[in-house]
Amino acid sequence: MSAGRVAERVGVPVLAVVTLVLLGLVFFYPVGIVLVEAVRVDGIYSLATFTDVLADEFYFGVFTRVFSDPAVLVRSFPDYRLGLFGFTAYQAILSTIASVLLGLPGAYVLARFEFPGRRTIRSLTALPFVMPTILVAIGFVATFGKNGVLNVALRSVGLPVLNLRGTLAIIVLAHAFYDAPLIARITAAAWEGVDAEMTETARSLGASPLRAFRDVIVPQLLPAILTGALLTFIFSFMSFAIVLALGGLSLATVEVWVYHRISQLDYGTASTLAVLEMFLSLALTYAYLRYEARQRAASAARPPERMDLFGSITKSRLFAWGYALVAVVVFVVPIVSLVVASVTGPEGFTLRNYRFLIERQATAYEFQVKPLTAVTNSLVFGGGTLLVAVPMGVFLAVVSTRNFRGRKLIDTLAMAPFAVSGVVVGLGLLRGFVFGTEAFGYRFTIAGPIAIVAAHAVGAYPFVTRNVAPALAGIDDSIVESARSLGASRARVMLDIELPLVVPAILAGMAFAFAISVGEFDSTVILATGGTGYTMPVAIERFIGRRLGPATAMGVVLLVVTGVSFVIIDRLGEGSGFGG
Q: pTM here?
């Protein structure tokens, strides 16, 4: 047998083993480390930490007394002490409601109206997948902070200033900015699939437009709305950078408090909290995937025709233009404020913030953040992430399109990083590999930058898989069968026919992976602590509490890199899992 045929035969199994081993090392082992540390106290396995956390009102508020005194819920109503988990869920509920209220009108406009730039705006609803959360935070500080654009405008007309930073309102609004596009994207797709004939039949039987909407359209949209709401709740519950930058410890969520405990070297409590949150997020993610699968299974015979946005004045058009005005204020102003704040000062237009980034590189002490180092690290880590995440993601996409026993299990394991926060992965990599782990009589350690690349790859490869898998599934089976009938092996068909056909999807996945790496904050801020492996998002967070100008300048640099990645996704991602 020729060497080429041997390589073909063993290549895929070897790639499978390498991928699974790599996935185990960079994800499942670190998560396992966190699980173990949550149940080990002074080297002895114990549930003492779990018991202490579950019984502590700081973490669970009034609910810690429910089992011993159920009437406490009645006696203390409505002045509940929610505790850390309760407050995290509360702000996630408020954020979800705000996102739904802001996103549903956008879904209606995208689904029912035709206008120039509609495709571009629809593509922009994918921005939350690539926009760094720290960028959202700095945009809202630049808008609503003490010296933000809003207060500058208020001072100029003699009105009192309004500082929303450090309030629950700004956190909820920032989450709505981030998540409402997801609601609009998911619901618009369902709205476009509403069966127009059912609505017309209801109207012909005498139903008013409102009743036809309530009884015919809403039931068809409900699965999509629930899917988007559940996904938004998960994102808001696991939110880290936005809460850390805008609320701090005074409005800490579980993620922020885990980070605080890590900074205090209290790894046992941090691991316990992380495990409790992880189990909850896994359950919620499972529910989300069930809803998503149910939504995709639905189809319609004839979608309704879109109306022209421009024309005679109607209630529908007035509503659409009114929403457009709200959307500009909520979605555009924070980004514009970020750019404006980076080039303005008390004296007006200035480039001193960008000069600071350059000069700080030469004058900063070793323990201070050097801006150009942060930019360089982000780009290098992004390149390293591509080397790891793209092969993993493409291989798992190939696996997900094959029929074999155990495929669903592999699919579930491969998508597990969606349900585990970067804080958990970062903590596991820190405790497991950066601090070192004993195996085979040897202590294995890795440098912080390598751990950062591993954490970024964990967060990025599922997006490669979700981009490539639909493209592979869409290849005509007859092409593959013709090649096989001519004697080509399965591996040769994959290399010579299938993968070349999905190159645009692979490139879109690469753009996603790079953008996610460049913007990743949760795991990076843990792994870069005390070292020089900080990135642009970490630099922004360190600047934001001291000097707004340099933070906004660094934010603009990050925005440009993210924007370029998004343009690539928009051009190449049509029809893929996220980019279309």
A: 0.84
